[in-house]
Amino acid sequence: MTPRTKSCLRRHWPLALNIFLVVALGRYGVVKAYEAWQTQQFNVVEIAFAAHNVVMLTFILIRRRHQAMDINVFHQLVALAAFFSGIAFVKAPTESLPLTTTAQIIMAAALVLSIVTLLNLGRSFGILIAVRQVKTGGLYSVIRHPMYFTDILWRVGYLAGNLCWPNAAIFIASSGCYVYRAMLEEQFLSQYPDYQEYKKKVRYRFVPGVF
């Protein structure tokens, strides 16, 4: 491989990866929306889920290149496990109307908050542990990891509406991955003075006054 070819690959592989993610995740979102439409379950949660996917996929496609990335493979596997863990949940709809309603409210709220968080992040959104630009406004002025908080909150709602032992186990593992990922990410970003200052201003990771 010539130096020119290597340079070309280094320059274009991030765009190729972004396009792949948009196609793969977009296909998943379309399939989920079609299934909901076919089963006449295209409710406010599905609408919020579709809107969330549109915003997320847009930012994946136009996101800025990272300045640095954690090269520890295990750390990145934790990040990927957290992000894709929602796919592992199984459908086990509860027959309790109050529980179903509660689950839908929680999931809709989580998706709306997630959209707000995505807008706060903008082109700095990423799936792997990397540094693009330290964001301190919006929900990031309240807690350090609002994106992971909303992802866990959505899983709380899904578990409430699809309560079974496999989903409970997935929820525990998924939440653990998000918490661990947050700690790994902070460890990586703390090498930068801007993030060190940010941690001093925003003390809590997920819940103000608690953790």
Please tell me about this protein's structure.
By secondary structure, the protein is mostly helical. It has one domain: Four Helix Bundle (Hemerythrin (Met), subunit A) (Up-down Bundle), CATH 1.20.120.1630. It has helices at 3-38, 44-62, 73-84, 97-121, 146-161, 165-189, 193-201, and strands spanning 68-69, 130-131. The protein has a two-stranded antiparallel ribbon. The longest helix has 36 residues, at 3-38. It is globular, with a radius of gyration of 18 Å. The chain starts with a helix and ends in a 10-residue tail after the last helix. Mean pLDDT is 85; it is low at 2-13.
Keywords:
two-stranded antiparallel ribbon; single chain; mainly alpha; disordered N terminus; 211 residues; Four Helix Bundle (Hemerythrin (Met), subunit A)
Q: What is the count of structural domains?
A: 1
Strand-pairing-aware structural class: mainly alpha
Any guess at the CATH architecture? Up-down Bundle
Question: CATH topology, anyone?
Answer: Four Helix Bundle (Hemerythrin (Met), subunit A)
Give the overall average pLDDT.
85
How helical, in percent, are the residues?
55-70%
Name the CATH class: Mainly Alpha
Shape: globular
Strand order of the largest sheet: 1-2
**What is the oligomeric state here?**
single chain
